[in-house]
Amino acid sequence: MTADPTPDPIARRRRPRLRRLAAVLAAVLAAVSGYFTATAILADGPSYDQIPPPQPTTTGVPPDLSPDAPALAAPLGASEPVHIDVPRVGIHADLIEVGQNADGSVAVPSEDQAAQAAWYTGSVTPGQTGATVILGHVDSRALPRGRAAFYPLGAAHPNDEVDVTRHDHTVARFRIDVVTLVDKQHFPTQAVYGPTAAPALRLITCGGTYTTTGGYAANVIVFAHYVGSRPAG
Q: How much is the pLDDT for 142?
C-alpha cells in the first residue's frame, strides 16, 4: 500500500454524539435484520453448497463484559477503516462505509457488495476510545458458494486476533473476548453500541436457525478489546 498524501477526511468529520445513538438503535437493528432476511440465499440456489454457516457455542451476552475496563494500549486518533482480517477463520474483507437512511435506520451493503464488510459511521473509528461497529453479510446469491464476507464469523474463538487496517496506514489490533449467538428479539443494544472506557470492537452478522419466511433468527456478535497498533504492510 503506497502512501496517500490526501489528508484523512475522517479527521474533519464530526462524530455523532453517543447519546444520539440511543434514539436510533432500534431502527438500526430493524434495518440490519430486515435486510439480511430479505437477501439471504436460497438453499436451491445454483451456487449454494447448502453448508450452513458455523455457529458459536456461546449464547446470550455474558454478564462479565466490562465497558469500564481501562485501555491496555494508548488509543489512536480518528482514521477511517478500510480492511478487516480475522486470520484464523479466513476473514479478509475490504470495508465500505454505511451511515443512516433518511428514516434514521442504518444503511447496509447491497447484495452485490456482500463480499465486503461495512463500518457503521455512527461508531468511532478503530482504535479510538469507544466501540467500533462493523457488520457483514453471512451469505448472498451473488457470491460463489453463497458465502459472504462474514460467513465464517461464528467459528471465531476467544483470543483470536482481529486486525483492522485504517486509512492512515496503521493497523488497529484487537483480541476477541466473546463470540456469541443472540436472538434478534433480544439484541443487546447497550452492550453493542453503548460507551466504553477503552477502544473496543463489535462484529455482527446473522446466524441461528434460517427459515424462508423469517430469515435468520439470531445474530452472531463478536466482542473484542484493543491491544495496540502497528504500521500496515
A: 85
Distance CA 106, CA 99 (A): 6
- Residue 201 in this model has a pLDDT that exceeds 70: yes
At residue 28, the 3 state secondary structure works out as helix
Measured distance CA(11)–CA(51) in Å, rounded? 43
Q: In this structure, are residues 134 and 81 in contact, taking their beta carbons and an 8 Å threshold? A: yes
Instruction: Please give the pLDDT value at position 137.
Output: 94
Cell 463480499 sits on residue: 115
- The answer to whether the beta carbons of residues 138 and 221 sit under 8 Å apart is no
**CATH number of the structural domain 16-231:** 2.40.260.10
Q: Determine the length of the chain.
A: 233
Residue 191: count of CB within 10 angstroms of its CB: 19
Which of 205-218 are b and which e, b meaning 16 or more Cβ less than 10 Å from the residue's Cβ?
A: bbbbebeeeebbbb
pLDDT at residue 20 tops 50? no
What does the DSSP assignment read for 78-89?
---EEEEEEGGG
Cell numbers given for 193: 453500541
Pairing type for strands 91-98 and 117-120 reads parallel
Contact 121, 112 (CB under 8 A): no
Q: pLDDT band at 49, cuts 50/70/90?
A: low
